[in-house]
Structures are given as structure tokens and as C-alpha cells.
Design brief:
alpha+beta, Alpha-Beta Plaits, 4-stranded antiparallel sheet, about 20% helix, globular
Length: about 100
Amino acid sequence: MTGIRRLVLDVLKPHEPSNLLMAKALSELEFVEGVNLSLYEIDQNTENIKIVIVGNDMDFEKIKREIENLGGVIHSIDEIVAGKRIIETVTTEQDR
């Protein structure tokens, strides 16, 4: 079974816990192989981050629960990759 292989999430979270702690906690889920976390915006109380999670047969509800347990809220799911392999996005002239 392959299921969900990559998720790109737009998340709003408080400053604490740190982004390091959030990335580490997500990477420790049994089905996660890697996590990239990028800070996009910061204000007095919150941070807007983009989280890319790669794994095999990932459980979205467990990922969502972990993010919420750390005080985060998923604003949007910006990308979902599922199936036997990950298809990389190709930039075209229309995208520029």
C-alpha cells in the first residue's frame, strides 16, 4: 500500500513551541520519512509556516492531531501526492 506520500501544509502556530520542536515531533511519527519546515511570516503572537512532509501511507489525521497538540492550525493543504511514486512539479512558461 502506498497511500499519501507527500503533504504540503500551510500552518499558523504560536511562537512556542519552537519550529525545531514541531519539525522533530512530526518527523518522529512512524510513517514520516522527512520534514521540511519553512517560516513565511511572523508577527507579535504567531508564525505562518509551510510544512512539507514525505513518507509512505501517511495518516493525515495523526499529522493534523500532532500539529494541533503543538498549538498549530492547518490553514490549507497546498499539495497532496499519492500513489506508487512522487511526481515532481515542472515549471512551465505559464508559471513564470
